[in-house]
Amino acid sequence: MRNFALASLAAAASLCGLASSAAAPSPDTAAATTTLKSLGVDTSKFPAQPGDPSLTCKILNFLYPKNETFTAASTLYTPLVDIPWSQTCWLTPACIVTPKSAQELSVIIRVITALKTKFAVRSGGHKPTPGFNGVGPDGVLIAMQNINSLKLSADTKTLTVGTGNRWRDAYNYARVNGKIIVGGREPMVGVGGFLLGGGVNLFLNTWGLALDLVTRFQ
Fold it and tell me: What is the pLDDT of residue 9?
């Protein structure tokens, strides 16, 4: 099978300004306040403070309280930090957020953008370059492992692959359905980072880069 699609990579933020007055907050704070209110955040409890990653983590935890946002106080924090195989990438973010859908990811990006918080996105964490799929205490790590859907199209010609999958998962799904797909040479490599890097594969001379076979991104 030549074609597959990658689900849930990114979303854009939309910020609205507030009317200015003599005692008006800064434009960044006003815009952040408007965005947070539109998401149902009580800004009297969580006053907008752009540039404060700890506040960003508190708001994300408020929006997704069911074990989706993890700080250093969580027993799951260190195992999530240590997922990359290379210890050079074991950075310690202010928190780790694990969206389960494109809609949740969209909200997370809106919050992070409004509060001007540094962030990194990790699919599988295979790239051994510090900062490529991780961030330090001044930022938020978006770990995509829960966006891991796999679905074959009705005509069986296209496989939709959630960006949180590793190629092992995609290969096993394709094999069970009698298909072969073009992907990473190492089964533990994450789908998202591999494709965004072009996608050098074992069938390069025949099919080209794996990225060339993507039919659409969400």
Answer: 40
